[in-house]
Amino acid sequence: MARKLDRREFIAATGAIGITGLAGCTGGGDGDEETTTTADEGMDGEETETETTTETGGDGTESRLSWHAGGTGGTYFPLSNEFKSVVEANTDFTLQVQSTGASVENVGSLARGNADFALIQNDVAFFAKNGTGIDAFDGNPVENLSGVATLYPETIHIVTLADTGIEQPSDLEGATINTGDLGSGTQVNATQILEALGIEDFTEQNTGFSQASDQLKNGDIDAAFVVGGWPVGAIEELAATEDVHIVPVEGDNRQAVKDAAPFYADDEIPSGTYGLENPAPTVSVQAMIATNAEQPEATVEAVTEAIFENVDDLTIKTDFISKETAQDGMSIDLHPGAQAYFG
Predict the structure, then answer these.
(1) Mean pLDDT, residues 91-97
(2) Angle between helices 7-19 and 103-112 (to 10 degrees)
(3) With 50 as the cut, is the pLDDT of residue 36 above it?
(4) Domains of the chain
(5) DSSP percent split of the chain into helix, strand, coil, nearest 5
(6) DSSP class of 248
(7) Kind of pairing, strands 145-161 and 223-228?
């Protein structure tokens, strides 16, 4: 039976998981190997221990860097592994790519020093840096959060199956909806958008993209929010066996979402994607690389240069990722290392 969502309750829960332990940010190494074990929420909602190892040279420059991505069914994880390949091929650094609950959780990891770099959404970066927007950030800005580069539009997918009968946003009223992992930017966006669309009564589920796909296939949910650059792997896999429908966000509905927050922009999922017969109008935010103020300028400059001088070696989102567009939609101040590269 559907229940009415208490928006503030779920936003608070999102932020609490994402920034638990913001205090106690750590600096660089001293030439020794340092191993830190932290508790992170896994994709299934259970707490798992993550071991982060940082090796440094005698001059204090880190050689092993921790890069926090997102769920394995989204775009962040495979793209981060492509970044790993180009960074390791063109610098002396090695990257440890970790699957996480994505944006809000990654902000907390950067703030605590458990991650050296991470992929996050530009809206979550703005909220965190300015201490606003999300209840958990209100009055608690993440002051050491620094920008590196923006990458590509992160498309808002409202995914359902043809046999659910959900055709328009109004049909989501009373539905069971997966709004993404607690602590993720997807959950934040889903809550904002549902409120903007006037959807007040629904049952919420919270998992990563891959699990949401299984829930749709099994009939456990009616719809799911997925935020990522198309094509998202988990939706492609679902579309291989099911008739996928993307709920359109257009006209007055699109304008209502854009009026709710300044960082949403018009977007469209092309026909042919996920087997769609027609383009699906929607909105998007922007994916970006972030770091923390404790990272040495030389480290950030080298990693940034390796990525943007070797875009031709990437296969994911290459129509969008470039040095020329890497500051479009940047919502926070750049790290000095990134500034040194981009000029």
Answers:
(1) 98
(2) 40
(3) no
(4) 7-12+154-285 (3.40.190.10), 27-152+288-342 (3.40.190.10)
(5) 35, 25, 40
(6) P
(7) antiparallel
Q: How far is CA 112 from CA 69, 76, 183, 341, in A?
A: 16, 21, 16, 25
Q: How far apart, in whole angstroms, are the C-alpha atoms of residue 41 and residue 61? A: 30
| 218: Cβ contacts below 8 Å, ≥ 6 apart | none
With contact defined as beta carbons under 8 Å apart, do 50 and 40 qualify? yes
Over the chain, what is the mean pLDDT?
Answer: 84
Single out the residue of 208, 224, 226 nearest to residue 216, CA to CA. Answer: 224
* Separation CA 268–CA 239 (nearest Å): 18
Give dist(CA 202, CA 212) in Å, integer: 16
Q: Closest Cα to residue 79, out of 174, 185, 152?
A: 152
Task: Indicate the burial class of 52 (C-beta count within 10 angstroms; 0-12, 13-18, 19 or more).
Answer: buried
CB 65 within 8 A of CB 304: no
What value, to the nearest 5°, has the Cα angle with vertex 10 and ends 264 and 237? 65
User: Inter-axis angle of helices 185-196 and 7-19, to 10 degrees?
Assistant: 160
Share of the chain above pLDDT 90, in %: 70
Vertex 199, ends 195 and 205: CA angle to 5°? 90
**Residue 210 per-residue DSSP state:** H
The reported pLDDT for the residue numbered 73 is 85
Phi/psi at 226 (nearest 5 deg)? -130, 125
Residue 326 to residue 308: CA distance in whole angstroms: 9
As a whole number of Å, the end-to-end CA separation of the chain is 56
Which pair of tokens denotes residue 86? Answer: 């180009």
Complete DSSP assignment for 127-153: HHHHT-SSGGGTT---TTEEEEEEEEE
pLDDT of 223 reads 98
* For residue 113, pLDDT beyond 50: yes
Stated pTM of the model: 0.72
- The DSSP symbol for 232 reads P
